[in-house]
């Protein structure tokens, strides 16, 4: 069953149309990768899935985005609950200037969890799920800024998991990291997909080929081709997809 | 490039170094002489009798008690009022107000108010608090006037602090399902707090040294009691010091110096608190 269904989606930044008539269905418990040259609208599209575009002035959207069958752009939708349900990890690791512990508990506290034991439990389980527990369990009260870039990014993943989302959106989460940290996060994603649905933007085609089940190729705000990852990389239907993955442009 | 040119550049290089060093030393020396004169004049008079007595015509009986308490009362009321209004205004302008001509107008006005001479605020306070609200020539009128005086400084400093909180921290909070207010309270204010605090304390230091607006709203120079309510009459340290310097007897010059020492101690305490709090909050994460 598809957990996300996008129908005839157009998005405008003022006069500029950044997304053209996107249609897509994303399966639960899978990894979907978005690839395409920079500026083609991958981040913009990702942000329509948890309404982070609401924050940008002058954005207009038409079409529909359904998550678990419900149109998230309907007026009765509570954006805060929507975003709790759809976590997001950004390109630059962005931990809060607080302790590791406080970074993880920030989300649960927002949603009303104050019990100390419960919070301790969430911290441990989230850090374990993000494969960071072993490295930080003795320094939970230390500032998050003391961690390495790769650790910070896994902390951000743990922070997102702490509010127990169904879907995890990731916008080039490894592009600021070294190869070893990148490999760790890729390994992690493979485990996370048993529990979460993952949508990941990546500038790195090998990464998409390595980790994703399905791949979407975007160009100039259009979804050119969306298929299972082996098909996209070995046997694409569209000439433009083939040109892009064989490195003829991009 | 000719050799002469090179030597000349080197000479300029040395000379500018010396000029800047002299400029720095001049300032330090002036401060040193000032401190030395005040301490050597005033320390002899600075004793418990001086701290615990009221103003008097007789040098050996004169003390600073009422002025010290007057200043503390003023700061005690000015600080919370200016703090709450200042941060509130800054948050509104930075986080809530839509950018437009109205917001720009407010912004330009606040920036200009920060440069308005303090006597003008005194006249405003006289009209608004003393006569308008009928608070009279009281601590309350003085403190509210001071709050208005430092408000623009606090607003501008807080706005800069809030603006420098990176957008990506706000996004992280929203992406976890935080509301706007939760984001402001949980992320923006804590991250901006050390800088806000610095601006706030600098503003208060200015308030402690001000005399003109308080004279206009009716501080008096001779008070022989410790104010016990915001609706009491009052004097403050700089006014008391000024009144001593204008007395004919020579002893009062030294007593004024002792008063200045007390004023400086109050200022340093305030600044030290600011530095302590800032370091504490910066270390917290
Ligand atoms: N906040 C914004 N305001 C206006 N235009 C934007 C904004 N963000 C992105 N765009 C424009 O939308 C298009 C797609 O950008 P983006 O989604 O960031 O692409 P990608 O993530 O694929 O590099 C680009 O033309 C970009 O200039
Ligand atoms: Mg992008």
Tell me about this structure.
Chain B: InterPro entries: MetI-like, MetI-like_sf, Phosphate_PstA. Chain B: Belongs to the binding-protein-dependent transport system permease family. CysTW subfamily. Chain B: Keywords: Cell membrane, Membrane, Transmembrane, Transmembrane helix, Transport. Chain B: This is Phosphate transport system permease protein PstA. The complex is a heterodimer of chains A (250) and B (285). With 250 residues, chain A is of the alpha/beta class. Chain A is 36% helix and 27% strand. Chain A is built from ten helices and ten strands. A six-stranded mixed β-sheet of chain A has the order 6-7-8-3-9-10, sandwiched between helices. Chain B has two domains: 43 residues; 232 residues, Orthogonal Bundle (MetI-like fold), CATH 1.10.3720. Chain B has eleven helices and no strands. In chain B, helix 8 runs antiparallel to helix 11. The longest helix of chain B has 40 residues. The radius of gyration of chain B is 24 Å and the shape is globular. The relative contact order of chain B is 0.15. Chains A and B meet through helix 2, helix 3 and helix 6 of A and helix 7 and helix 8 of B. Bound molecules: adenosine-5'-diphosphate and magnesium ion. The site of magnesium ion has 2 residues of chain A, from helix 1.
